[in-house]
Input
Amino acid sequence: MDSKKMKIIIAISIVINVILIIVMMTLKQGYMEQAQSVVASSTKAYTDQVAKVVNSQNEFIAKSNAIWQLIFESLQSGDKSQTAFKARLAAIDTAKILQVTEVSGNVQIACGEGCNVSFVFAGGNLKSVDYSALASIAPEQEYTLTAPPAFQFQAK
Amino acid sequence: MQLKHFFIASLLLSVALLSLVFMQKGGYVSQAQTTYEKRTTDYFNKASMVIGGQNEVIAKNAVLWRIACDAQAQAKTSKDFATIEKKLDFNKIILAPQIKTDKATGYLTRKVAWNADYYIVASFDKASSALVNINVDALLGKAPVQSAEEALEEDAPTEE
Output
């Protein structure tokens, strides 16, 4: 091969190397930004999922404490009238977190999905309270965390 | 001859650069995966401890609440109370009840607890054993701070 041709080939080779370096630097920056972004969004998605469970558990604790207090005070009080019950309910549930429904004069308070505490009234007085659903809640089945999902990196 | 060497060096550099172009993605993915796994696993472990602890409080406090409510509705005497307590504590979470005389009222009190923070206290008339009152303040976070003397006194469990 003569010297002139060799020089041309070397020049092309150098140009290719320069292009490769530029491509490498460009991709490097892109991959770094993508990696940081994917880590941040994947981590946030998981921590949000955990926060949802924690918040839901905290809400249940606040609700169940209020319901237990209402049951206990209703059983303890000598005044079994519905008026006294309503006053007690209003005093305990100041934050308005309880879902209260009245059916045929009886009061039901939701303690979760498919969970209700029933206050049965007769002649305007509290006759009985059914809190078996609240007592049998298994929190470890309601409030559990799943392990973080596998990392997914989709490069653009 | 020198040009030939230069060409070979340039060619090798091209191959090396091309390899780097293809390998660098794997490097970033690997770093990102390590960071993600470390962060989320740490978070999972800490949150699991918190959630597990709260679940324990919910479940065990429910037993105390149930004892208090059932006793309030059905118990007339200390014997009735003890029967309800025994029946509902089928998972044996309750510590040995602490029984003492309340100096202020003269009532016999039975403290039912599953730990130092969560408990109920039932008071009984000493002469008739009649249930007088059930205090659930500790379950509502309203329990008074105990004096060291009271705490030490309760360290020695007593049975009826």
